[in-house]
Structures are given as C-alpha cells and as structure tokens.
Amino acid sequence: MFGRKRELSDDQHPFTDFPFLMVSGLGRSGTTVLRNCIAAHPEINGRNKESNYAYYLMRGANLFMENEFGRSNLAVKESEFWKCHQQLLLNLLWPRTSIRNLKNSKVVATYSKMDPRSAMGMAQAFPKHAICHIVRNGIEVVSSFRAFKNFQHMSFREVCDHWQAQFLMVQYCRDNPHATLIRYEWLENDNQQLVATLTLVLMFLGLEFHDDCLAPLKKRFHPTICQGESRQDSEDLSKRSNRWRFWTGEERTVFTDVCGAAMAEMGYDLPWHDA
Asked: Are 122 and 20 in contact (CB under 8 A)?
C-alpha cells in the first residue's frame, strides 16, 4: 500500500545500545525501594521519577503488531517500527539535555507497571533487557491501598481485583528467562536472597553486584498506617500480615474468592482459615 518501506534516521539516543532494566510491580509493594536499590549501582543510570509511560507505549505497540491489518500496512519495516518505539521511550525518559553520568553508565533502569503484553513489547524494542517484578502479600497490599488516600475511591473488591490481576505478570516471569520475581519480604528481612537474585539479574546484563545497592535498605521505611492500628504496630513487620483482623467477614470472603488462588500460588496463607 505504501510502496517501499522507509528507513529511519541514524540520529540515535545515547542509550540505544545499553541494556535496559525495568522494575515493575503493583503500587504499595516496595517498587520505590527496589528501584532505588538498583539505581544506586554506580554503573546504572536510573531514572528517579516513576512513570507508567513504558507500559502504555509498549502495550499499545504490541497490540498493534498482533493485528494483521496493522502489520500489513506499516510504512516502515517491522524492525524499524520497534526501533522507533525504542527511541521514543528513551527520549521521553532520558531527554538528551538532562543525561547525567553518561561516561560511567553501562545499564539504564526505570520503573513502570508491566503486564505480559507490555513486557512482550519491551522484548521487541529492547532485545537486551531484564524485568524485575516485585510481589507482596495481598493482605498487606490491599490494606495499604485502602489506607492510602489516592485509592480510597476504589471498593474493596476493586482493590482485590487490582492485586489479583498482577498474577499474570508473576506467571510471565516464571516462563521467561529475562524476567525475575522479587519478594517484598527480601527488602526487609532476607537481604541475602535479594543479593543473590540481583546478582543473577545484573550478571545477565553484564554487571557485577555492588554493595551500594543495599544502601537504600538502611533508610527507614515509611509504612502506611491502616485503620485500627498505631504507628508502632504499622512498623512491626510481624503484625502487618494481621491487618485482615480489621476486615469484615464479608471482606474476607471477597478476598478469598478473588485472591485466594493467586495467594496460594505465591506461597501466602489465608490466616483466617486457621484462626
């Protein structure tokens, strides 16, 4: 339809050939702390601000390329289509005039929520990439969402649906070697497992683990204070999984129906069954 497919400009972003490390995960699951740990590596150029733009761009591109009509009417080669999206994302996240520490950078990293479709788009646009997807006990996430003012417009069931939906990404990580699961608990009480996992991820991208990656863990966490608990209780790790005690019987039933299977798959208990 368009005749000969055009070639794009050779004016490439400075990070074009850099491996790309994406931190993903549901809000209230430790995404900020994990992103800071990775960005603390002296050879990683991490973007400080969290943005979901990569999710929308890569998901939309992947959906478009799954459509036969869309693919057949491309004005450029398929490889150039993905190159264009790669350059667009890099220029939006790292504008050339604001790049710092280019000389010492070997990997770029940022945060965006991800689902399998957007992750598949990332794989096309960034052949050298890795995804670290962090998960947290659904009871703690749902409780934290309900206490956080930005999400108080959501019903209890909607919050449960929100947590359960990210299980698709958990399954994607299990099936793809460039995607890795991180548990929130490792940030707080199992740093050895965190180090072992990040070491493998960084090795995959051509880097060695650096102790600077643990520095953000030394800063005091600021947990959400949920309804019915004191600040002291909110900071006690052993009590966070007990937040279900403030739920009604109906809410526990809803959580079991919506999230029970995913909780079991990820090794989290439904404690009210034993209460």
From this structure: yes
Q: Is residue 158 within 8 Å of residue 251, measured between CB atoms?
A: no
Q: Which residue has the tokens 């990569």?
A: 54
Could you give the CA distance from residue 251 to residue 244 in angstroms, rounded to a whole number? 9
pLDDT in tens, 251-264: 999 999 999 999 99
> Tokens 């969290």 correspond to what residue?
50
Beta strands in the chain (DSSP E): 20-25, 44-46, 107-111, 129-135, 179-183
Helix axes 249-265, 156-165, angle to 10 degrees: 0
The answer to whether the pTM exceeds 0.90 is no
Domain ranges of the chain: 20-267
* 20-267 CATH: 3.40.50.300
pLDDT tens track for 83-106: 999 999 999 999 998 888 888 999
Q: Are the C-beta atoms of 173 and 133 separated by less than 8 Å?
A: yes
Question: What sign results for the dihedral spanned by CA atoms 214, 216, 220, 222?
Answer: negative
